[in-house]
Amino acid sequence: MKLLKEEEIISRFEKTLIEIEEKINLNSKSYDSDIIIKIMKEILKIYNSNAMIFIYGAGRSGFIGRCFAQRLMHLGIKSCFISDAVTYRYTENDLLFIISGSGETTSSLAIACKAKEIGGKIILFTGNLDSNIARISDLTLKIEGKSKEKAIFQKTLAPYTSLFDISTLAILDSMGGILMEQLGVSEEYIENHHASIE
After folding, report:
1. pLDDT tens per residue, range 145-196
2. How far apart are CA 132 and CA 8, in angstroms?
3. CA-to-CA distance for 2 and 16, rounded, in angstroms?
4. Share of the chain above pLDDT 70, in %
5. C-alpha–C-alpha distance, residues 74 and 62, integer Å
6. Which helix (H) or strand (E) holds 118?
7. Is 64 left (phi over 0), alpha (psi -120 to 50) or beta?
8. Of 101, 135, 171, 190, which residue has the fewest beta carbons closer than 10 angstroms?
């Protein structure tokens, strides 16, 4: 175990925050605006048709997905995270979001294939536009970060896949902010949809 001096701890802490900030900033400039517009339209289509948005990701991507599912619920949009205790029946009228840095995660690919077979639309958030999940998705948004396949040889201050995870969360919460405005949702509305026993 390496014992860091206090000034080394603070230096590393600040540099890591800056690295995360720079990656989010990169994603704020490198996204495909046409894809963002199409994703927003798909979400509104689901909302207007009273259908359901399903979300899935493995590992840390799953935690980011759960954050998005919760935010959609706060905004009055029907949503659930696949594999949680309460998972609804997916139909051809529904929308599936997959979060996978590699676009090759075994469980994510299996779920995407099943959704494709059923007929609903698939949206992928990934760092790999050439992946197997990207090939069967209706819309794919590339997110700059670091997938687990690159984690061992691509050195960063933020550990493992954190840059992809945090960037994805920032993008999804930015979409949440747009949805608030489009749906006329107030902070009070969100408060009324927030858990009251926690």
Report:
1. 866 666 566 677 677 788 999 999 999 999 999 999 999 988 888 888 777 6
2. 42
3. 18
4. 94
5. 18
6. helix 106-118
7. alpha
8. 135
**Crossing angle, helix 162-183 and helix 6-30, to 10 degrees?**
50
DSSP string, 145-187: S--HHHHTTS--SS-TTHHHHHHHHHHHHHHHHHHHHHHT--H
**What is the rounded average pLDDT for all residues in the chain?**
91
Longest CA–CA separation in the chain, Å: 58
pLDDT at 134 over 80: yes
Kindly report the number of other CB atoms within 10 A of residue 106's CB atom. 9
* Residue pair 98/82 in contact by the 8 Å Cβ criterion: no
Distance CA 62, CA 33 (A): 25
Side chain identity at residue 116, one-letter code:
K
Sequence-distant (6+) residues with CB within 8 A of 21 are none
As a whole number, mean pLDDT of residues 35-45 equals 97
In the chain the domains, ranked by start, together with CATH numbers, are 31-185 (3.40.50.10490)
